[in-house]
Design goal:
The structure is a homodimer of 263-residue chains. With 263 residues, chain A is α+β, with helices and mostly antiparallel strands. Chain A has six helices and ten strands. In chain A, strands 1, 2, 3, 4, 5, 6, 7, 8, 9 and 10 form a ten-stranded mixed sheet that branches. Chain A binds chain B through residues 9-11, 56, 76, 80, 84-88, 90, 119-123, 125-127, 130, and chain B through 9-11, 56, 76, 80, 84-88, 90, 119-123, 125-127, 130.
Chain lengths: 263, 263
């Protein structure tokens, strides 16, 4: 039985997210169907973590187990033949039987794209958040730097009362067991940077793991800083309060990209 | 009564084309609804010509008549507020009462994009035709140059027996009356050029007017040249034959852009 690792890019716009859901097209489900057509096996591919509806990926990592002997190079071609153009397999390779793309991940990198000019070209509408309003960029950069390091990110996590906290963490790509309680909202941010690139402001963050909606809530909070509603140093007070209601709004999914998973 | 001219960009993927159709979202119909919501008037905007389902525009020109006194700069903002992100109004201005965007057009420019690498990123899937197969580019450039000038393009026009020829010409953006019969398939091509740009081959053509499917059938024929199936000089023989069956296949709409309309 082989354990096959895939690196995938996808346009999340027309999917309900990574995870299979009844009656809605998911990345996981679409991939499972394509694998099934090639190998004849019923599999549920495992991802490095979920992405929400509308969130894109440049290099999501997934694995599936298969008895098939099809060479991995041919698998890439065959999968891309079957998958819709909005999902591409970039690479495939065989990995150790005990490799799991979520638990083996050391860190992940996300990017958020803000498009600044007054009119957003129709060809970008699915791939950026159009935000043409005045922003004080230097204070946003300052606020972003302040969240680097190890913090409890409860204030930036989705409040989702339907799900027990431990379970939500697993879904968000956290690593249960890494922290003492297994339900900790503590994460380490290795880098947190805003940069300007052409007509866009881009936020890029690399961390040990991310809670549900964490990147989108951080961006919403940095926008409060950029508008002057709060000060850069307030971000630390928001972190300490462990209170979602103090942070900014969740920005739209369409600007968010899972850029890379580091092992 | 004002005659208002709009310059518009759109992602044609999710539309049945420019022209209003029953039970399918069109650019024209979506624009008409947005104008109606702003002015309270029922209008049918006129375009410089139709674009087919899936064909994009960087600068389609449309006009509509209105009693509304709303300043044109405000109209751009108001329309973009209502329209989906896949349709953007780039400019609005008031023009002479007798200006019609189709009959006043002196020429139009179209572009076709071929994406060449083995894997097409999901974010390009709607905006290029993925064609990773070997092509002899110099012979395609040579063939493209040969169609410059005045020719009868019957061999490159869609065969659509349901519609009388004269009507089809009007729909395709031709100018009835410009040629003696009013049903002529003669057009003048001012420039016809293939160029390489990054990972893409781009065909750009400027002409007095274009028959239905003409650009896509030209590209399909240039690909036959690029594959070595026919020679560059065969393009002239195909033109002379006035026989659609001799030309190449119609390439997919998603790679085609109406780039500009010249007045």
């Amino acid at each position: 039985m082989r354990n096959v690792k895939l690196v995938m890019a996808y346009d999340g716009t027309d999917f309900c997210g990574w995870q299979t859901q009844p009656d809605a097209p998911s990345i996981q489900g679409t991939l499972a169907t394509a694998i099934g057509r090639i190998t004849g096996e019923k599999v549920l591919p495992q991802g490095s973590g979920r992405t929400d509806a509308g969130v894109h990926a440049l290099a999501q990592v997934a694995t599936f187990r298969s008895e098939s002997r099809i060479p991995v190079a041919n698998l890439v071609i065959a999968l891309n033949d079957i998958l819709p153009g909005s999902i591409r397999v970039l690479e495939a390779c065989e990995v150790a039987a005990d490799f799991h793309p979520r638990t083996a991940a050391k860190s992940k990198t996300y990017r958020y794209r803000l498009y600044r000019p007054a009119i957003c070209p129709p060809f970008f509408a699915r791939y950026v958040w159009h935000h043409p309003y005045p922003l004080h960029f230097e204070t946003m950069q300052e606020a972003a730097a302040r969240i680097e390091g190890e913090h409890d990110f409860t204030s930036f996590a989705a409040v989702d009362p339907e799900k027990p906290r431990g379970r939500r963490e697993v879904e968000a790509g956290g690593k249960p067991g890494e922290y003492s309680s297994g339900t900790s909202n503590v994460r380490t941010i290795f880098s947190s940077i805003w940069r300007q690139e052409g007509d866009e402001l881009m936020y890029e963050v690399r961390g040990s793991g991310f809670l549900h909606h964490m990147v989108r809530n951080l961006v919403g909070t940095f926008l409060l800083v950029g508008k002057g509603t709060i000060h850069p140093e307030d971000v630390i007070a928001i972190l300490r309060a462990r209170n979602r209601s103090l942070a900014g709004a969740t920005v739209p999914a369409r600007g968010l990209y899972l850029v890379n998973v580091e092992y």
